[in-house]
Every structure is written in structure tokens, then in C-alpha cells.
Amino acid sequence: MSFTSEDVIHVIQAIAAVIHEHREYLTQLDNPIGDGDHGINMDRGFQAVLGKLAGATGQPPGAILKLVGTTLVSTVGGASGPLYGTAFLRAGMSLGNEMEFGPEQVLALFAAAIEGIQARGKARAGEKTMLDALLPAHEALRAALAEGVGFEAALTRAAMAAHDGMKATIPMLATKGRASYLGERSIGHQDPGATSAYLMLAAAAGLPPEV
């Protein structure tokens, strides 16, 4: 199985659609523990990305991912723009200029994206951030591919792991980002960053999101 620029564009379009659909929900999650603008900012960023995809046809998949990254950095406010922007930039860099890539390279670009977020945000698992959805998702994808599971089924497992990680942020005490200022009052709220991360993976897997 191999993937092309067309596949990447299709996934980005699906991500933009699910973020737009859940824009208000993400903002509602952000109201009690953040700046109340996560959904608005993410939707603005991905709408800007959609506007640039038409001119990306024929470019290598890595270049398209880097285009997504630079667009998110320049259009998404708060911490999410630099974090998600860095993730897509690192993912694109990991692919180089190859015109096609396979499941193992998906695993590698996922790892590169996570490393970019960790480097930028100085966060780790258990701190009530997007990493609490992304890290278990990456591990689930790695384990599934190692077992010889088909890619689509492996990606479904990754999305399900992200869902569980997202829900696991509810009882967590936030120790990074805007939510950390609230101390124990951050407990009991689902992290909006983990939620948007899950939504992206669900979109990539072609699954109806369950938030």
C-alpha cells in the first residue's frame, strides 16, 4: 500500500471538515480552562489551509504537509498554531521529496510530528494536553503494524486509542498551558487540544467522531 499527494489532500480536507463541524464544541471545551477560542482558531486555520490546497496539486506529499504547517502557524492563534504547525512541518520534513510513501513512513511522520510538539511545548504524557491523545495513538499504530494488521484497521486502532486518551484527560490536573493556571479547577474538564487531536485522527481514519 502506498499513498500520494492526492491522498494527503483528501485527509487534510477531511480534517478541515471535522474541525469546522466541531468548532463550537471545541470552543465550549476551551471556555472553562482556556481562552475560549480553540475551535474558532482551529477552524480559521484549516479554512485557510483549504484555500491553499488547490495550488498544491502535483507537489510531493511532504511539501503539502509543510504548507499545512506554515499556514497553521500564521493563522491559528494561541498555542495551538505553533504546536500543530510544528507537527505538520516536522511530518512533512520526514517525508522529504518522495512522491509516494507507505505505512511505515506514516508511522515515522507521526513520530516526527509528536517530537515537534514535545520540543515546542515542553510537555509530556499526563499533563492534560494534545499529547495525551497523540502518544497512545502512535503506540497503537506502531503495535498494530508490528502485528501485521492492515493499515486501515491499524489507523482505526490509533484513532480509538486517541479517543481513550482524550477522555482520560478529564480527571487530569493540568500542568502545562493556560489550563495549568487554574490548578485543581482544571480537573473534571476534557482537554480541547486532546479533543482536536482525536478529531483529526478520526477524520484520517474515516471514522465518525465520538466526542
Q: What is the topological layout?
A:
Elements: H1 5-21, H2 23-33, H3 38-53, H4 61-75, H5 80-95, H6 103-121, H7 131-146, H8 151-168, H9 192-205
Helix pairs in contact: 1-3, 1-4, 1-9, 2-3, 2-9, 3-4, 4-5, 5-6, 6-7, 7-8, 7-9, 8-9
Mind explaining what this structure looks like?
The protein has helices spanning 5-21, 23-33, 38-53, 61-75, 80-95, 103-121, 131-146, 151-168, 192-205. The protein is globular, with a radius of gyration of 16 Å. Helix 1 (5-21) crosses helix 9 (192-205) and helix 3 (38-53) crosses helix 4. The model has no long low-confidence stretch (mean pLDDT 93). The chain is built from 9 helices and no strands. The chain has one domain: Serine Threonine Protein Phosphatase 5, Tetratricopeptide repeat (Alpha Horseshoe). With 211 residues, the protein is mostly helical.
Question: What is this structure, in a nutshell?
Answer:
The protein has 211 residues and is mostly helical. It is 67% helix and 0% strand.
> What is the annotated CATH architecture?
Alpha Horseshoe
Poorly predicted runs: none
SSE string, helices as H and strands as E: HHHHHHHHH
Q: What's the helix count?
A: 9
Net shape: globular
What's the story with the biggest beta sheet? none
Please identify the structural class as seen in this structure: mainly alpha
**What share of residues are in beta strands?**
under 5%
In CATH, what is the homologous superfamily?
Answer: DhaL domain
Count of beta strands: 0
Please compute the radius of gyration using only Cα atoms: 16 Å
The amount of helix comes to: 55-70%
CATH domain topology? Serine Threonine Protein Phosphatase 5, Tetratricopeptide repeat
Total discrete domains: 1
Distance between the termini: 30 Å
CATH class: Mainly Alpha
**Can you give the mean pLDDT?**
93
